[in-house]
Design goal:
By secondary structure, the chain is α+β, with helices and mostly antiparallel strands. Helix content is about 35%, strand content about 10%. About 45% of the residues are buried.
């Protein structure tokens, strides 16, 4: 997924965390690092029972996405120092003290293996392996408590990174590959506050479970919904908005990240809201953040889904091959975005509109350039 996000504030938080990490890196670098090393992190999780999310988060932080001198010259992605038991090559780097001894590896893969051995063979980290393997917040905090790093914000930074870029899904994927998820009745409930956007590992060209391409085939069901946070672009009575709902005419999909029934529309996975559902509850069930779920559905902070409403669990597409939609009474631009599974800001772009634009019945809304 190619997304350009504002990363100035993000970088100011993460840069300078470690004195031996002086290289600067962007969100694009983080995404590339995840893609490049996620397979080896999953493999190490299978071998050593260390969450892939923790391994990747540490690798990103400790190596500045592989751009630090320690990573470039020493293939050391985890900041592991020599210690008395190291008999391999070494490299001297200024860290807490000048010219400290760090381990040097022949390859990045060797660094990943040594990181796993470092955690599994030292008694000080033994209590890590008493934690649930999907409890990445517990792993992060225990790593800090056990002395892996001296930075007081180390655990929070790992957790923030994992949640921002949705790396914990790799942990679930690993267990799914091993057939272990079927033995777990529910996904883990993460109580840590989560209000940051994340990366989604989505192949927009994939097929549904029946092998057919996902298509938008369902006609909308007309309902109304009170939500003062939605865009003011409707002709219905004040505060009333049309909501796009669905039934089982949509193709079904398959996702290892949720036990809910998953459908697809315009190559985008969604679930159907049940009575009493909130974005927070659905977010827990599908293993994304509530903030992300709201972003996927162009929903404001105050609104909640109504029963039978479509709730997309990944980012919608940039366009729809239907190309044009003719507005009917009561429809908002958000409603159109939900119906065709197109990101709202692209609809704004295609039609030279914004969140304050007013649409009228009969207007033609472009869904594609």
């Amino acid at each position: 997924m190619k997304k350009i996000l504002h990363f100035g504030c993000f970088l100011s938080v993460f840069l300078g965390m470690f004195s031996n990490v002086s290289a600067q890196y962007t969100e694009a670098d983080i995404r590339e690092y995840i893609v490049q090393y996620q397979d080896i992190a999953i493999e190490k999780m299978k071998q050593y029972k260390i969450p892939a999310s923790i391994t990747l988060a540490q690798g990103i932080f400790e190596s500045a996405c592989g751009k630090s001198r320690l990573a470039v010259d020493g293939n050391n992605h985890f900041g592991i120092k020599c210690h008395t038991d190291w008999a391999g090559d070494t490299i001297l780097i200024d860290d807490d003290e000048l010219q400290e001894c760090f381990r040097k590896y022949d390859s990045v893969a060797a660094s990943y293996t040594d990181h796993s051995l470092f955690l599994t063979t030292r008694r000080r980290y033994a209590n890590l392996f008493e934690l649930d393997i999907l409890d990445y917040p517990g792993w992060a905090r225990t790593l800090k408590a056990d002395g892996y790093a001296t930075n007081p914000q180390y655990a929070d930074r790992l957790i923030s990174l994992i949640e921002r870029f949705n790396i914990a899904r790799l942990d679930t994927l690993c267990l799914e590959q091993q057939g272990i998820m079927a033995e777990r009745p529910h996904p883990p409930v993460v109580s840590h506050p989560d209000n940051r956007p994340k990366i989604e590992y989505v192949d927009k060209n994939r097929k549904d479970a029946q092998g057919a391409a996902r298509e938008q085939t369902q006609k909308p069901v007309v309902e109304t919904h009170n939500d003062a946070s939605l865009p003011n672009n409707t002709n219905t009575p004040a505060g009333k908005f049309k909501v796009f709902t669905a039934d089982n005419e949509y193709p079904t999909g398959a996702s290892p990240f949720t036990y809910r029934k998953v459908f697809s529309n315009n190559n985008t996975f969604f679930v159907v809201a049940e009575a009493g559902d909130t974005y927070e509850k659905i977010a827990t069930d599908v293993q994304v953040s509530a903030a992300n779920l709201r972003r996927f559905n162009d929903a404001g902070k105050g609104g909640q889904p109504v029963e039978k409403e479509i709730v997309y669990i990944e980012s919608k597409a940039k366009n729809n091959d239907a190309k044009v939609h003719v507005v009917e009474r009561g429809e908002t631009l958000r409603y159109i975005a939900q119906r065709y599974a197109v990101q709202l800001h692209y609809i704004f772009k295609y039609n030279n509109m914004d969140e304050n634009s007013i649409i009228q019945p009969g207007d033609q809304i472009m869904l594609k350039h």
